[in-house]
Amino acid sequence: MINAKKLVDLAIRLGASDAEVYASAGKVITVETEHGELGHAEESISEGAGIRVIVGGAEGYSSSNDPGKYEDAVKAAIVCAKARPKDPALKGLPPQPTKYPGVTGIFDQRVADVGLDQCVDIAASMIRAAKEDKGASVTAAKFSSIVSDTVIANSNGINVEDRETVVLGYVDVIIKENGNVSTAFDYDVARSMTLDLDAVGRRASKLARDSMNSSAVKEQVCDVLLGPYAFSDLLESTLLSSISSENVQKGRSGLAGKIGQQIATPGLSILDDGLLAGGLGTSKSDDEGVPSRTTTIVKDGTLASFLYDSYTAGKENRESTGNAVRPSYSAPPKVGARNVRFEYPRSDVLKETKGGIYVNSVIGAHTANPISGDFSVECRNAFVVENGAMAKPIKSLMLSGNVFDLLKKIDGMGKDDRAVGVVISPTVRVKEMRVTPGA
Amino acid sequence: MHDFYDVREMHGYTTAVVYDNGEIDEISTHFVSGAAARAIVGGSYGFTTADDPSKAKEAIETAVRLAKRLDKINPRKKISLAPIPKRAKDVYKIKKNPADVSMSKKQDLLRSIEDAMRERDTKGLLKSTRLNYSEAYSHTVHYTSDNSRIEYDTYRTGFSCSAVAGEGGSLQVGRRSYFNVGGYEIFDQCNPIELAHEAVDEAYALLNAKPAPSGKFDVICDPELAGVFIHEAVGHASEADTVLDGDSCLEGRIGEKIGSELVTVHDDPTMLKYGYYPYDSEGVPSQSTTLIEKGVMKAYLNSRETAAKLGGRPGNARAGGLARPVVRMSNTFIDNGEMTKDEVFEGVNGIYLKGSRGGQVNTGEGVFQFNAVNGYLIKNGKLGDCIRDVSLSGNTLRTLNNIVRVANDLDFHSGRCGKAGQGVPVGDGSPHILIKDAVVGGSS
């Protein structure tokens, strides 16, 4: 691992008033199918560093994955900062905190120790499980194990390190019988080796099987059960973008000015939890070294807070909520959610539903209008729900509406929480949604 | 016989300048280098990347070790590769190196685009603006254990601008961009000021737009949306790896009539559009492929492996950065028809859909869904009310058959295409087309 403190010192010597180095090093092992069978093995070790400097009250950024170029990157960051005028809103980099919270469940030595042979066994077993249905073919499957170290150091004395592991398995299946075609996918991702990927394989082929011989339904307004994939996807591109203080400050959020107003169904709380045990977004600090915490975004249906990093918090003279997030060392931090979870009375929502439609996942959620919240998506693996059970599969269905409207129409949440991206979502029942037959 | 391997070594940098509401939000330069090594042993691929290109030798050893091990514990039918065809290649040379243009000149350009957006805001509805400039350079060396070796430079440059306008609690965004393969000369190929105006006009139009109706309509797609359709719905299903995975609705269709006679589709990486490349990521010199000719499926897009399996020509294996090569498109387009744009609109009662906010496709079932930026109701060929939040969905083959008019105004748009977790630059193109009985989704 690189000496981050040394690069910070170099930046200061070269004229920066503030400097920060975010470096990460990781090892990934991936086994993947080639045309339905395992045929690809990858093992790579990579590292890189991102350098953020402040010169004359303006910020500059540079990165490199070549240790031989780290010093060039420091110089390039300074050149970038010098090209900008002073930013009056910039209050400097985060201060050194008195302490960092303890977090659990983000590192598993068994993942760090895993080798190619074990990865092949796990993936092969998942594929076999998917093929227990003799009609099912696997079109794609993948298993990855990742171990990564991160260090963040800045000129205010922050020097924080974290070690994390992630494993994920993914499978895509197709069933073709008598001119009928049906597809389904499933995946699971976790911090530890506890994943049951055989179950993932079985679920995918069962979903494809259950979706065979589908028929169209008529246009209607009805109760819709959104599975974890569907609900998370719809929220990710709309609600999550709207609760970013950056988007609020820049006039790009449909929730601007709505703090204290009711935006969701009473009884529903939405939290961003950087401390969640075993969460995929959990770590001691955010990506600029601010201690992680839990932030209540919506409390009992009322909008309580947006998410902040140190820059956007500085603009409003408040504290960062620990939501500086980077996709990798090559990007400067931006406001982003860590682990979004819901508090709402849980029940067996499917069983309680007399009539309606269940939607496993949607395609096109990223095409939703992030500001207005309007969306129109195609449903995948949708079913007619009758008397508390999935009665029959639906052929091509469009679901349209508005996410902010949808939040007010939630009237049930299941007990089946799944981590999908940054959202931990159960199956969610929404009243009175419009569905139209697709192609 | 020795084990097969190939290596890509890359060195490069990217520079980005981002303006937000008229102020610089980000200026950054990133250096990227590394080597990706791939080996084949029996029926297995081994793959690894190294950040330091001088460690390519170790990377080859790792790739061979991985392939050997996987082949031993999970043996599969032997992989063979189609040979790399020998073809002379002129690699595009940039006219103006962006690195020679000063940072202040680039900032001046962005400020002029910002000013143009402000000037266009005649009603004072503009809430925020965002501008993005980027230049990317990479030097690639590709060599194989069969002693083939090539080396070339690629530059990509461009800008995007977006305008958010608000009125009465409603916020809408308009966007324009121009990206192309090449250096700073790409700014001579477009009119940034006009594009800035169009972004504001689009946000304004969306503010006044009405929710769209749902149902079946005769739909005219503009070149951008039709280009996205041909890329997403037809192009992806034509990728031979997807065909071999059993996940394509076009499997076994070569030689069959799959669409209207008006439809001819090419994938051409030699065109100087955003999806241009002189060589693919397996070192194969690029060439144009006709996917569909007058409605008849002619060919799939191939890598060296799929070409050997299916009898096609290699040249479409591409990789995002140092990732592994997979079968990808380049510049994919519906070729010009014989009608003028006006003739396509003549007498149509339906919906005109413009632009794309992206979309997705299920290649196996052959269904797609795209969201247009906006649209217009059409009555007897004349544009009526503007509509927004409208999507087009359908069955790929049925839609290809339902294309009943094709204009002669082929135009390209630049984008990034995601597959296998990798993004690569692509160009999508089409003239205006009329699709009868298309499924439109709206919220009214």
Structure description:
The complex is a heterodimer of chains A (439) and B (444). Chain A has helices spanning 4-13, 70-82, 109-113, 116-130, 197-210, 228-236, 239-242, 245-249, 310-315, 349-352, 403-408, and strands at residues 18-34, 37-55, 58-64, 136-154, 159-177, 180-190, 220-226, 269-273, 294-299, 302-303, 324-325, 334-335, 340-343, 355-363, 374-386, 389-394, 397-402, 410-413, 418-420, 423-425, 428-437. With 439 residues, chain A is an alpha+beta fold. In chain A, the strands form five sheets. A six-stranded antiparallel β-sheet of chain A has the order 3-2-1-4-5-6. Chain A has a five-stranded mixed β-barrel with strand order 7-14-15-17-21. Chain A is globular and about 70 Å long. In chain B, the strands form four sheets. Chain B has a six-stranded antiparallel β-sheet. Chain B has a six-stranded mixed β-sheet with strand order 11-10-9-14-21-20, with helices on one face. The radius of gyration of chain B is 23 Å and the shape is globular. Chain B is an alpha+beta fold. The termini of chain B are far apart. In chain B, helix 2 runs parallel beside helix 3 (192-207). Chain B is built from eight helices and 22 strands. The interface between A and B is large, with 84 and 80 residues.
Largest sheet of chain B: 6 strands, antiparallel
State the helical fraction of chain A: 10-25%
The beta-strand count of chain B equals: 22
Structural class of chain B: alpha+beta
- Radius of gyration of chain B, CA atoms, in whole angstroms: 23 Å
What is the percent of helical residues of chain B? Answer: 10-25%
Number of helices of chain A: 11
Strand order of the largest sheet of chain B: 3-2-1-4-5-6
First-last Cα distance of chain A: 53 Å
Q: CA-to-CA gap between the ends of chain B?
A: 66 Å
Biggest interface, which chains? A-B, 84 and 80 residues
Task: Give the oligomeric state.
Answer: heterodimer
Q: Estimate what percentage of residues of chain B fall within beta strands.
A: 35-45%
Q: Give a count of the beta strands of chain A, DSSP E runs of length 2 or more.
A: 21
* Structural Rg of chain A: 24 Å
SSE string of chain B, helices as H and strands as E:
EEEHHEEEHEEHHEEEHEEEHEEEEHEEEE
